Amino acid sequence: MQLPEEGFMDHKTVDERDTEWETATPRLRAFFWTNGRSHLDCVEISGATIRDASTWARDEAERRGAKLQLAILSADEAGLPGLIWLTDGGGADA
User: Fold this and answer.
1) Half-sphere exposure of 91 (CA within 13 A, CB side)
2) Of 26, 60, 23, nearest to 43 (Cα)?
3) Nearest 5 degrees, angle CA 70-CA 83-CA 51?
4) Cys staple from 67: which of 33, 35, 59, 63, with CB 3.0 to 4.6 Å?
5) Confidence (pTM)
6) Nearest to 33 by CA among 83, 70, 82
7) What is the b/e burial string over 18-50, where b = at least 16 CB atoms within 10 angstroms of the residue's CB?
8) How many CB atoms neighbour CB 87 within 10 A?
9) Cα-Cα end-to-end distance for the chain
10) What is the pLDDT along the chain (94 residues), one digit of tens a residue?
C-alpha cells in the first residue's frame, strides 16, 4: 500500500511481549488552531481513552471553529518528551 508523499508503509510480525508497559488512558494533547492558523490553544487531556478524548476534541474544535490536531504525549529512550501524531498534518511544520 503506497501512502501519499510518505513512500511505502512497512509492517512485520512482532512478539507482543517485547514491551515493558502499556496504558489504556495515555496523556494526549489537542491543538486547536484558529484565525487561519495564527492562533493556537493547546490542551492536555488525561484520564480518558483515545476514543473519548478524540470525541471531546472534535466537538471542542467544532465549538471553537478551530482546526484540530491530536497527539499522544510520550517520551523517547532518553526520557525527553515528544508527540506521536494521531491526526494528519501534525507537527511544527504543518
Assistant:
1) 5
2) 60
3) 35
4) 33
5) 0.78
6) 70
7) eeeeeeeebbbbbbbbeeeeeeeeeeebeebee
8) 16
9) 24
10) 445 556 677 889 999 999 888 888 899 999 999 988 789 999 999 999 999 999 999 999 999 999 999 999 998 889 899 999 998 876 655 4
Specify the residue for cell string 515493558: 20
- C-alpha cell at position 64: 471553537
- Name the residue with cell 493547546: 42
Q: Which residue has the cell 501524531?
A: 85
CA–CA distance, 69 with 42 (Å, rounded to integer): 9
- Side-chain-side CA neighbours of residue 47 (13 Å): 0
